[in-house]
Amino acid sequence: MTFLKTKKQLLTVLAPMATLSFGVASADTESTDNFDQETTGHLDVHVDHSQLDDAIRNATAKGIKVTREDTKVLTGNAEETRKNIADAKEYYLKKEKEIVEKIDQYEKDLEASNKNSSASQSEITSANGVMNAYNTNLTTYGSTTIAETKVYDKAEFEQDKAKIDSAIKVAKLHSDLKTRYF
Predict the structure, then answer these.
(1) Could you tell me if 138 and 112 are in contact, meaning their C-beta atoms sit under 8 angstroms apart?
(2) Among 23, 26, 135, 171, which residue has the least CB neighbours within 10 Å?
(3) Are 84 and 46 in contact (CB under 8 A)?
(4) What is the C-alpha to C-alpha distance for residues 106 and 64, in angstroms, rounded to an integer?
């Protein structure tokens, strides 16, 4: 085994390996690093939040607006970091559940709205049919009618129906009197 005497020789030998990211070494000194020492520094820790991301994408695809809270930077020693990781996982799970619940509620509301819309549409069609029949009855008895377009309201429809019912009775009496005496 041959030892290199100078740094220049070592660098010349290591130059082809520089692309492999070897650091510069020195043959003149010996390392006496103590690896048992506690060091301080910065270490990024990643906590998986892919399920939360999927829930957010699903909600957004359904048209639900999801707002993001500001990112929190948690710091601490090894024990605090373990606690922070557990807290982050719990937080992500909680937020995922909230979003899934909102999606479920949205889907239920949408389904109920669609059912109400169908029922509402059939009620509107029925109400229009009743009003057309009443108009026909009124014109049969010689009354003039004016059609009015309104937004459907069941209570208002019932009131209008009662008014037209009484108008039909009056028109029928008038028609009967007219045919008897004229």
Answers:
(1) no
(2) 23
(3) no
(4) 8
Contact residues for 65 (Cβ-Cβ < 8 A; gap 6+): none
Which of 49, 141, 130, 136 lies closest to 89, judged by CA?
A: 49
- Cα separation of 13 and 7, whole Å? 10
Where does the pLDDT of residue 34 fall: very low under 50, low under 70, confident under 90, or very high at 90 and above? Answer: low
Crossing angle of helices 154-181/78-140, nearest 10°? 0
58-103 residue pLDDT tens:
999 988 888 888 888 888 888 888 999 999 999 999 999 999 999 9
142 secondary structure, DSSP code: T
| Alpha-carbon span 139 to 147, nearest angstrom | 12
Give the count of beta carbons closer than 10 Å to the beta carbon of residue 109: 10
Q: What is the mean pLDDT of residues 5-21?
A: 37
76-98 burial code (b ≥16 CB/10 A, e <16): eeeeeeeebeeebeeebeebbee
